[in-house]
């Protein structure tokens, strides 16, 4: 009976050892799969980090270009604003000069009109004098 129980226990022990080995193999296999998955995820993380670094670099380069363009446009705007101010000043001077010239022309026209009228009166007086002098010996 003891021998039979011992034999039965040994068989049960062998079965349990086989189940333990199978379980250990499955755990080792799962560990290997998990390790492969971890390595794949690490590779993916590295690739994504590289892409992120490249995107950051591209964005910084793009921002630098935009900053330079904004600076250039700002300088150009400032230059154009100064030119506009100078042109407005020049226009003001030209308008003032034009006003002075118009006033001068107006005064000269008035003088000419007065001189023309005086000349007309003088002619009439000369004609009157001639007529009068023609009547006198």
UniProtKB/TrEMBL annotation:
<feature type="coiled-coil region">
    <location>
        <begin position="63"/>
        <end position="97"/>
    </location>
</feature>
<feature type="coiled-coil region">
    <location>
        <begin position="6"/>
        <end position="33"/>
    </location>
</feature>
<keyword id="KW-0175">Coiled coil</keyword>
<dbReference type="InterPro" id="IPR038799">
    <property type="entry name" value="LEKR1"/>
</dbReference>
<protein>
    <submittedName>
        <fullName>LEKR1 protein</fullName>
    </submittedName>
</protein>
């Amino acid at each position: 009976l003891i021998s039979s129980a011992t034999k039965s226990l040994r068989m049960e022990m062998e079965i349990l050892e086989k189940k333990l080995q199978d379980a250990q193999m499955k755990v080792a296999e799962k560990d290997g799969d998990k390790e492969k998955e971890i390595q794949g995820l690490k590779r993916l993380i590295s690739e994504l980090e590289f892409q992120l670094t490249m995107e950051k670099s591209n964005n910084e380069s793009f921002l630098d270009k935009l900053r330079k363009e904004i600076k250039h446009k700002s300088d150009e705007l400032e230059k154009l604003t100064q030119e506009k101010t100078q042109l407005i000043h020049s226009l003001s001077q030209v308008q003032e000069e034009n006003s002075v010239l118009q006033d001068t022309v107006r005064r000269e026209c008035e003088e000419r009109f007065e001189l023309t009228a005086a000349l007309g009166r003088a002619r009439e007086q000369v004609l009157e004098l001639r007529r009068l002098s023609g009547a006198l010996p």
